[in-house]
Amino acid sequence: MAAEANFLAQSTVFLAAAVICVPIAKRLGLGSVLGYLIAGMLIGPFILGFIGDEREEIMHFAEFGVVIMLFLIGLELEPDKLWRLRKQILGIGAVQVVATSAIIFTAGLLLGLLWQSSLAIALGLSLSSTAIVLQTLNEKELMQTDGGQNSFSVLLFQDIAVIPILALLPLLAVKGLKDQAAENETILEGLPLGLQTLGVLAAVALIFLVGRYLVVPVLRMIARSRVRELFMGTALLIVVSIAYLMQLVGLSAALGTFLAGVILANSEYRHQLESDLEPVKGLLLGLFFIAVGASIDFALVAAKPLLIVSLTLALMAVKFLVLFLIGRFFMLSLSQNFLFSFSLAQAGEFGFVIFAFVSELGVATSETLGIGMSIVALSMTITPLLFIINEKIIQPRLCDRSSEESELPHDVVEEKNQVIIAGFGHFGATVGRFLRANGVEATYIDNDPDQVNLLRTLGFKVYYGDATRPDFLLSAGAAEARVFVSALPSPDENYDLAETLEEFFPNLEIMMRAKNRYDAYEFVDMGLKNIYRETLDTSLRLGADVLIKLGRRAYASKRAGQTFLKQDEQAMWELAEHRHDRERYISEARARIKYQEEVIKRDMEVEQLPVDHAWDSEPLIKSSRES
Amino acid sequence: MRKILIIFAHPRLENSRVNIRLLEKIPDRENITLHDLYETYPDFNIDVEQEKSMLSANEIILWHHPLYWYSAPPLLKQWIDMVLEFGWAYGTGGTALKDKIIFNAFTSGGNKEAYCPEGYNCFTIFDFMRPFEQTARLCLMEYLPPFAVMGTNQMKEAEIARAAMDYGNLLETLSNGDFDVKNALSATYLNDIL
Question: What ipTM was estimated for this complex?
Answer without folding.
Answer: 0.84
